[in-house]
């Protein structure tokens, strides 16, 4: 399996495979951070709409590929990150059903977290539906839960629970070796 970061130029190459992944997730009840779509064309349009944010480096997008094609994706939303705020949001972590429980999500998250650290992000968060399978996954990756009140702003997609992780300012590669 290979993890690849996409950009605005490479996104169209994988858009139909990403759309199939999104349609599958929605058919299984996962809202996935995109509008709920059941048709391929709508899902393709949802990914096409990411191109301006990818061009501006407001969103980073990775895919996981195996010999059969795209098996997973994750996005890091940097739009809220500023000089004073070192927070970023994880969105749209999807793994196709045939690749679940094979470490795809864990590998995608590792690449995302390493990149976030390199960009000096100190807190990552992701909101999700309470009681979803995603909760157990995030807990296993070291994330902690904060319950969101329905009038809380900033986490508008699902407004159920938010998982967050404090990242170190230093990556293991930056520690001196003795």
Description:
This protein has 178 residues and is α+β, with helices and mostly antiparallel strands. It is 30% helix and 26% strand. It contains 5 helices and 7 strands, in the order βαααβββαβαββ. The protein has a 7-stranded mixed sheet, with helices on both faces. α1 (11-27) crosses α2. The chain starts with a strand and ends in a 12-residue tail after the last strand. The model is unreliable at 174-178 (pLDDT under 50).
Features of the shown structure:
178 residues, alpha+beta, seven-stranded mixed β-sheet, 5 helices, 30% helix
Structural category is: alpha+beta
Global morphology: globular
The total of helices stands at 5
Q: What is the gyration radius calculated from CA atoms?
A: 16 Å
- Uncertain segments of ≥5 residues (pLDDT<50)? 174-178
**Share of helix, binned:** 25-40%
Fold topology:
Blueprint: E1 2-6, H1 11-27, H2 40-48, H3 51-55, E2 59-66, E3 69-77, E4 87-95, H4 104-118, E5 123-128, H5 133-140, E6 144-147, E7 161-166
Parallel strand pairs: 4-5
Antiparallel strand pairs: 1-2, 2-3, 3-4, 5-7, 6-7
Task: Summarize the model shown.
With 178 residues, the protein is an alpha+beta fold. Helices cover 30% and strands 26% of the residues.
């Amino acid at each position: 399996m290979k993890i690849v970061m996409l950009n605005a130029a490479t996104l169209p190459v994988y858009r139909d495979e990403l759309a199939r992944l999104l349609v599958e997730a929605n058919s299984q009840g996962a809202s996935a951070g995109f509008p709920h779509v059941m048709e391929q064309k709508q899902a393709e349009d949802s990914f096409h709409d990411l191109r301006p944010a990818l061009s501006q480096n407001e969103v980073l997008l990775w895919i996981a590929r195996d010999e059969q094609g795209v098996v997973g994706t994750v996005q890091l939303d940097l739009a809220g990150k500023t000089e004073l705020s070192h927070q970023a949001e994880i969105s749209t972590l999807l793994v196709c059903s045939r690749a679940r429980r094979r470490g795809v999500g864990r590998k995608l998250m590792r690449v995302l977290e390493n990149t976030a650290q390199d960009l000096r992000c100190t807190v990552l968060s992701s909101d999700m539906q309470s009681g979803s399978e995603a909760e157990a996954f995030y807990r296993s990756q070291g994330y902690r839960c904060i319950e969101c009140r329905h009038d809380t702003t900033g986490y508008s997609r699902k407004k159920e629970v938010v998982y967050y992780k404090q990242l170190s300012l230093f990556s293991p590669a930056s520690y001196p070796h003795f």
